[in-house]
């Protein structure tokens, strides 16, 4: 806890009134931008702030009935003491080191609108949590400490609004146990959520290692959701730049929202959650069958969705969990682990090939052994690989290697197109290749640890603008040649410069 204690004195809670500053200038591409554009390999810090009883039961010891949600905890005895004790002890320095040493480069932190009431009291106005300001007023300071602690270890942070006013889904992790979706029912719910998201975007966009803001976790899909996405993104873009990543849930309709994301020019990312343990159909397949399905039919459909989103797609939640009925009867635990291991392997293969990142749900559980849901237990059981961080950076290659790679790729490019009808302007291929190579090394050599470019299309958009400005020419119909060169430069550098 030593580092945590040192950090506590560095952060003061903002004043109760909040003015939204205008910060709409895009961030120049460079080392600070690497956090947001790199391939994200992460874990969720579930039940740290937004509680789930099956993950952490101790904070529910005095909760009011039915004892399943943050509202129930807040309604119970000694709620402020219980919550602050949990917030201060759930993560320690050893936990952060474990995450970093396994090769993860980011964490997703689920929080809720009521956790913002310290600096933003009006966020509770007209909501179920309005009477509980005194209980949650200390949460935001601790969330800021969590963000800083992650940065100390070179980890990116995705902040996820897991619970919105009124509840955006019927699960207790939306803050309420009533099983009713009330998010759309009152203007005060929408106003609270808008205020919360604008506040978070304004605060977080200034911190380079904050990789994005997720607008709403797993909202129930309806005819209003897409319109709300349009309007809330427009509100946020009025105060933060278009290259600050905003993550949206696919609301279990991946194909539709992949097209929604792919049609946008700003940095919006689609979050798909992949679980195979909740339906009757899931229960009829063992781990190997699930793995085979992921590698075949699901891979093909997901590939199309990734293409529709122009690569701006992640898996914000996934696990190694299988329903107990998925296993053949009477098999030993070691064989169950083998099923989970193959299931996890298939998922990781898919994510590395077709997404820009993932976050395992969840980092740890309070009680008992659970190698399906706890990353720490899955690591001990070697269900999760000992190292998830991808290939290691071997250093910049000798002088002349890059030039040789460019020449070989350029000769192959021009030879192919000369026999296939020609191309608009082959001279732009080599500059694209060179830029892709250099940018890939920027990611591989980053001080926070080696990584690869994840949001390639989003990064290329900005680099193309820079190239056109510097070369004083529009790429026009030759844009695809520059892009081909860029992609090949990235791929070549990964082959040459990693092991």
From TrEMBL:
GO molecular function, one term: glucan endo-1,6-beta-glucosidase activity
Chain segments carrying region Disordered: 1-25
Top-level taxonomic group: Eukaryota
Protease found in the keyword field: no
Segments crossing the lipid bilayer: none
Recorded GO CC terms: cell surface; cytoplasm; extracellular region
Chain intervals with Polar residues compositional bias: 10-25
Plastid keyword on record: no
Keyword annotations of the record: Glycosidase, Hydrolase
Protein name (record): Glycoside hydrolase family 5 domain-containing protein
Species: Kwoniella bestiolae CBS 10118
